[in-house]
From TrEMBL:
Keywords in alphabetical order: Membrane, Transmembrane, Transmembrane helix
Ranges in a coiled coil: none
Cell location: Membrane
Transmembrane segments: 12-37, 57-80, 87-109, 226-250
InterPro entries listed in its UniProt record: Tetraspanin/Peripherin, Tetraspanin_animals, Tetraspanin_EC2_sf
Membrane-related topology note: Multi-pass membrane protein
The keyword 4Fe-4S belongs to this UniProt entry's keyword annotation: no
Protein name in the entry: Tetraspanin
Entry's Gene Ontology cellular component terms: membrane
Record family assignment: Belongs to the tetraspanin (TM4SF) family.
Keyword Phosphoprotein in annotation: no
């Protein structure tokens, strides 16, 4: 009688845990989709550098999040039926998904540090590809124009980037334009306030802050969504698997 009551109690907790696990899996899937869609449109910066693993991790998390949801639903069925065969299937598949999610979290958090640990990689890429020919040059140019216009910033660390270092932009425009016109402040109709004053570097007509803080914050936000929430889900799933193992041994 006591064993029967104990098994029933564990079954109830396991079913409740799987309900929460299913919700957590769907939330992980939704967050991963948000990262993969790239709302801030900074994927080219990661792609051209060859360090787009944060987005690769997002695609893995889409799979693992939905897989966790499906397996938690299956786990509810397996627990309710008190079937050892269904429970061992549940445990094996959950363990496989767990390993994939571990890979997703570790990939995102480690490559975030490489990409935006400091501004040097982003700056080097900007100087090399901005206004360059080819697909990479086109994508980087459009991305930087969008960032500088919307965030009201200039260069990676500031306008000085364009004159302190050699760049494709300088080779193309020489001394006519010390920095792109997207570094210049604009009116409500998007016309540059004063082109000549901007070219001369007057603070009232040029964006003086760099764009790196914005880029770093976006990739950190993506990493939080994939890695840190993913780690939280993994911690919950770990204890859920322990509970499932106990229940399996009690059957």
């Amino acid at each position: 009688m006591a064993d029967g009551m104990g098994t029933t109690c564990v079954m109830v907790f396991l079913i409740l845990g799987n309900i929460f696990g299913a919700a957590a899996g769907l939330a992980l899937c939704a967050l991963a989709i948000w990262v993969a869609v790239d709302q801030y449109k900074l994927y080219p910066i990661a792609s051209v550098s060859g360090k787009d693993d944060i987005f690769a991790a997002a695609w893995i998390a889409i799979f693992t999040g939905f897989a966790f949801f499906c397996m938690c639903v299956f786990g509810i069925l397996a627990a309710a039926k008190k079937s050892r065969a269904l429970m061992i299937t549940y445990l094996i598949l959950m363990l496989i998904i767990y390993i994939f999610e571990c890979a997703s979290c570790i990939t995102a958090v480690t490559h975030r540090d490489y990409l935006v640990g400091n501004s040097n990689l982003v700056k080097k890429q900007m100087l090399k590809y901005y206004t360059a020919d080819g697909d990479s040059g086109s994508r980087i140019t459009l991305t930087w124009n969008k960032v500088m216009n919307e965030v009201e910033c200039c260069g990676t660390d500031g306008p000085v980037d364009w004159i302190q270092y050699n760049s494709t932009f300088r080779e193309t425009f020489g001394t006519d334009y010390p920095w792109p016109t997207y570094c210049c402040k604009r009116k409500n109709n998007y016309e540059v306030v004063n082109v000549e004053a901007c070219k001369n570097g007057q603070n009232t007509t040029i964006f003086t802050k760099g764009c790196f803080n914005h880029i770093e914050s976006v990739f950190s936000l993506y990493t939080w969504a994939i890695s840190w929430y993913g780690f939280a889900v993994l911690m919950f799933m770990f204890w859920l698997l322990i509970l499932a193992m106990v229940y399996y041994l009690m059957l």
